[in-house]
Structures are given as C-alpha cells and as structure tokens.
Amino acid sequence: MVLGLVVRSFIETAGPIGSKFLVDTYSMGLSSASIRNTMNDLEQLGYLGHPHTSAGRVPTDLGYRQFVDELMEPFPLSKNDKQLLKDQLGLAFQEPLVVLRECSRLLGQLSNLLGVVLSPRLSTGVLERLELVPLSSSRVMFVISLKGRLVKTVVLEMASELTRDELDRVVRLLNERLAGLTLEEIRNSFAQRMKDVTDEPTGIVRLVLSTSHTFFSEPAEERVSLAGTQNIMVQPEFLSEPEELKRLVGMLEDANFIVHLLEEESEQSGRASVRIGSENSASMVDKYSIVTANYTFGNIVGTLGIIGPKRMNYARVVSLVEGAAALLTHTDPSIHRYD
Q1: Fold for domain 2-71?
Q2: pTM
Q3: How many CB atoms lie within 10 A of CB 127?
Q4: Are 333 and 93 in contact (CB under 8 A)?
Q5: For 221-278, what is each residue's pLDDT tens digit?
Q6: What is the pLDDT, as a whole number, of residue 260?
Q7: Architecture category of domain 123-215 in CATH
Q8: How far apart are CA 145 and CA 168, in angstroms?
Q9: I want to staple 227 with a disulfide (CB 3.0 to 4.6 A). Which of 104, 127, 139, 214 is the partner?
Q10: Three-state SS for 57?
C-alpha cells in the first residue's frame, strides 16, 4: 500500500514524498513513524530512492515496475476520450499516412507526452499483384498491392517510351514470378528469380533490379509519425537539464533509433508493453518510460506508443495505447496506401 501511494503521489507532484505528506493526504490509519519505517524498508529493498537534498523518497525503476505489475489499478478511458479517438481516427481513415499522423497527435494530446506511431513494416507483407501506370513518356508508377489491401507506389524514370502492350507483358512476367512472396523475400531473391529475363527489351526488369534494395522495402523515416515534443520538453524532470533536452531532440531526429526503440519488445496481442528507464536497451533513454502496443493492417503489424518521463500516469497511458491499437486494428478501411 505504501509503495503504491508513494508512486501515485510522486507522479502527481513530481517532488520527493515524505511520511508526513502521506499521513496528511491519505487516511491510512498509520502513524508517521510507522510509514517512515515502511519507507525505509522499501528503500532497503530497492523500491525507493532517497535524494540527498530531501527527506522524501522517490520511486526507483524497480519500484515503478512493481507498481505497474502488481499495484496499478485499471484506468478505463473516459467516454469523451474514447469518442475522440473513434471520431478522429475514423475521419482520418481516408489515407493511412493521415490516420497515423492523426493517431500520434491524439496520443500526444491525450497523454500530454510524446505520441509515436510506426506504419506497418511493408517488407513482411505478401505481394498480391504489381501494376504499371504510365505517367508520361518517360515515367511510370509501380503500384505494389499487398494482401490486406495495403498499397505502396514507386515512380521510376524510363529510358524510352513504352507501349501499353509492352508494359502489360512485363507486368504479367513480374506477377507470375513474384506474387505470393513477401517483399523481403522478393528483395533478397529478385536477381536470382529474374536472371533469365534481365535482358528483356523494355529494360523494366533491369530498372527494378537496380533499385530493388529500396523498391521492396520502406525507409525508417517514412514509417515514423510523432507528435507532442513540446509536451515532454516541459516536464519538470527536464526543465532544469538542458543537456537532457538536447539529447532528447537528437533522439527524436533519428528515425532508425525510434523504430528500433518502439519495435524492441512490443506485444503481438495488442496489449501494452511497458519498459521503464534502465529496462530499455538504449542507455540514452534510461530516464524515460516507453509504453507500446502493436496494431494490424490486414496481416501486417505496426507499432504505436507513448514516450515520457518515468514519472508518467502509467494506467492512463496503457489505456490510451491499447485503445488506439484496437481502433487501428479493427477499423476496416477500403485501402491503405503508402506512397
């Protein structure tokens, strides 16, 4: 009971919690001396820390972990929060990139922290069909349709103008050899699968081969949508630490790092995964907690989450992350397009 009250009080006040504060704030039926002794015991066990400049205690990473795993009470989202998520994400589901940006904005707004959404890893999607759309005499757009109704488009420059019959012939060839494979499988085996037709007269196979390392994948920077940087920067933990803010800004500018951070241990079930401080593999985020969950478009998995100081409202953040993941998974848009 005492540990839970210390954690909840610290989350609310951002200041070390003393025994007198607990006695004055909560009806516990215990004396200040009894609570102080209990807090001393919790400190010895590693659940609380004791800042040198204060008589109060603060939770350690171990204390937060115990709180999240054993002491935290569920925090159902309010009707207003649920309706806002449902309405805004429903309206935005005309285009996937729009809905992912909107989802990160809502997560940041509703948590007052940093909301992050990663688009699904398209390289794990199964190719349903390829189409070619001529845009001009020298430019064509490849439409890569994946199972689950996800679409990726790529525009390439051609050396010469091609007829519709020539384009159709190459498209049939590509689909015969590639349909049913994941984009990752295609990327790794394209040269081998097409080695006997690399000299076909249109030059399209050679063109795709020369760009296959990016043609059938997705750059990290295109997968990351984040919002609420200003929220996290004004948290009390960082206002007095300009170097920490500088490190934070650098972290947020590194898309590859953010992708690795969120995908590190996300739950496949859509349930929230909570990583606290030193539990994160990267030492540069040891002052942060990261709450993530996976969502599914078709059969392809994406990840969303909230990043904030360890002193976050875990129960509310978990509910927000799980609620947003469920909405993204269960909404059935007509097509998810990634250009």
Answers
A1: Arc Repressor Mutant, subunit A (1.10.10)
A2: 0.83
A3: 21
A4: yes
A5: 778 889 988 888 888 877 777 777 778 888 888 888 998 888 876 656 678 999 999 9
A6: 87
A7: 2-Layer Sandwich (3.30)
A8: 16
A9: 104
A10: strand
